């Protein structure tokens, strides 16, 4: 499959070909995200049997992979009635076969994994490296294992219970755990050291246009179901990459010309007490506030949705979350653990499926916004349910825990320790 897009640097405006999974502009002197510019100016969705690749006209992919599923959007009745909302649409990414949602990992991170991995050429010589707080790791493990794509995943030890797979793990996938009191930021640090070794390549996180455009399929699902661009977009965020993706998809849909010219207000949310993005936005500055590592770990340990705990989100970078919020007139909200659990129970009672912790934060802040009168109850609202159906999957599927290949202790989280672990992992390669 030939590429049908170019890359544009949001710092300089320069466009160029995507030769080798480019993550940064070679000429920009200021940190800036890249963005895809597609040959197809109008979305041309395929059929449901294409899975996520029904949206391939707006995905930066070179091939398609086995096992993908697209998000499912439907008009809410139960939750909408409970909250007094006239036009609430739920975009569900998880496992809910009765609704047509069959992401066995239970998370919208499958969207990014199937997009990122399909951007990789079949003759790609390196091993992909991904750091994660849990959901992204689970998605990439499943996608790469199913499609024979070599992968190293690095997660903090507290994320290990959140890793599962529904088939025998492909030996091309390796899992490294940062042990002890490590958090997501420690996992990122380990992954960077791994990428310094020959033959390993960083997936790139928010800098990878395929990750963002894969996440943006949630908005494509919503708009093609609703027939118009919603007025509000609600999502819980750790890095904010999904919200950036929603903003970019919104811009493409306006340019398409068939879905109206609305700019969705991005209403993103965090889990108290870890509110780095919330606090940075409230400070009114592009600069992210400082948060000491020890303090960050303490705050993360108190959160219900630990995946919402990125210490280095793409906040102030050109084209990042700050710009997305500013351009859309958006806002950052937050909910505590008790509010999240109450919201999860409300959703399960009114809609009939369990929520992942992060998604319950989004529901909690939607409820807050309604009760405070800060949103118009007659508006068209998209609620991005980024994960759910864990109980349904556990009851239905043959899920198995993912066992780590290496656990790095606190005194091994250095180049020497990581080098020894990598040598052991690949000694027969």
Output the keywords.
429 residues, alpha/beta, Rossmann fold, 5-stranded parallel beta sheet, 14 helices, globular
CATH class of the largest domain: Alpha Beta
Biggest β-sheet: count, sense, barrel? Answer: 6 strands, mixed
Number of β-strand runs: 18
Q: Helix tally? A: 14
In whole angstroms, the N-to-C terminal distance is 30 Å
Level-2 CATH architecture of the largest domain? 3-Layer(aba) Sandwich
Low-confidence stretches: none
Helical amount among residues, as a percent range?
25-40%
Account of the protein in words:
This protein is an alpha/beta fold and 429 residues long. It folds into 2 domains: 72-104 and 210-393, Rossmann fold; 127-198 and 399-429, no CATH class. 34% of the residues lie in helices and 18% in strands. It has 14 helices and 18 strands. It has a 6-stranded mixed beta sheet with strand order 4-5-16-13-14-15, sandwiched between helices.
Condensed summary:
The chain is of the alpha/beta class.
Helices, strands, pairings?
Blueprint: E1 5-9, E2 15-16, E3 34-38, E4 72-75, H1 78-83, E5 87-92, E6 95-96, E7 101-102, H2 109-119, E8 127-131, H3 135-147, E9 151-156, E10 164-165, E11 173-178, H4 184-195, E12 200-202, H5 209-215, H6 217-226, E13 232-236, H7 241-256, E14 265-271, H8 276-282, H9 293-300, H10 321-328, E15 331-335, H11 337-351, H12 357-372, E16 380-385, H13 390-396, E17 400-401, E18 406-408, H14 415-425
Parallel strand pairs: 5-16, 8-9, 8-12, 9-11, 11-18, 13-14, 13-16, 14-15
Antiparallel strand pairs: 1-2, 1-3, 4-5, 6-7, 10-17
Helix pairs in contact: 2-3, 2-5, 5-7, 6-7, 11-12
